[in-house]
Amino acid sequence: MKRKGYFSIFLFLLIGFSFSAFAQKETISYLNQHFYQIPKGDVENLAYTQKSFRNKAKEQVFYILNSENRMVIQKKVGVNQEGGFNQEISEEFDSLNRLIKQTIKNLDNGKYISFYYEEGEKIAEVSYVGIDSFEVWRGNPESKKMSDRDDFYPGLDKTKLNEIFAKNLQYPIPARQKMEQGTVQIALLISEDGKVLKTEVANPGEVSKLLAKEALRVIELYSGPFFPALDAKGNPIQKWMYVPVRFKLG
C-alpha cells in the first residue's frame, strides 16, 4: 500500500512538473495599438496582449488578444517544409471570430501573398512579386492587375519623401554622444480622402526620445500627396501607415 501511495504521489508530482514546464514555455507580452511591445504597467497605451510559444512542429506561435480577450491575430513563424525558407503565416479575425485575412510571407526575401475573405469566401488577393511590383485583384481573379504598391494600405510619393529625408534629417548630437541608434517607426493615420489625421511614434519603447523627435520633425516637412487605403471591395478607408526612419552610427 505504501509503494502504491508513493507511486501516486510521484505520478502527481511528475504531471504537475510537466504542466509547469509547459506553462514556462509560454511568453506573455503587452502591445500598443500599433502592435509594438510596451511595459506591463503601461495601462494607458495597452491595446493587446500577446501570448507566444513553440509548438510541436517547432514553429513559434503568437496569439494576439484584444481587451475583451478575443483573438484578433494568429501568427506562425517557422520553416517552409517544401521550399526550405523561413516563413510567417498570419491570420486576422473579425468580431465573430471569422477569418478576414491571411498572409503568407517569405521572411528571407520579403515577398508575400495576402488573401481577403468575407463570410468564408475569398474576395480579394494581393501578392508582392518584386520591388514596387504587386499583383492585385478584387471580386474576380480575372480582374488581376499590376500595381506599384499594395493599395490595401495607404501610400505616398516615396521619391519625394526620400529627397526630404536626404536633405533634412540630422543625427541629434546628444544622441550621437550617447551612442543611441535604432529605427523610428512613424505612424500616420490617413483618412478616406488622403489627409493626415494623426502622426505619432509607433515604437516609443524601442528608440530614444531624441531620435523620435527628429524623425517626427522631418516627416512633418512632407506635405503630400497621400493615397488612402482601399478595402477588399475597392472603397477608400481610414487606416494607419508606417514610415521607418533609421538612425545608425557610422
TrEMBL record:
Keyword Nucleotide-binding: no
Entry GO CC: plasma membrane protein complex
Membrane topology: Single-pass membrane protein
Signal peptide: 1-23
GO molecular function, one term: energy transducer activity
Domain of life from the UniProt record: Bacteria
UniProt KW keywords: Cell inner membrane, Cell membrane, Membrane, Protein transport, Signal, Transmembrane, Transmembrane helix, Transport
One of the GO biological process terms: protein transport
Subcellular location: Cell inner membrane
This protein's record includes keyword Cell inner membrane: yes
Domain annotation TonB C-terminal: ranges: 156-250
First-listed, main subcellular location of the protein, grouped into a coarse class: membrane
Family: Belongs to the TonB family.
Protein name as it appears in the record: TonB family protein
Organism of provenance: Algoriphagus boseongensis
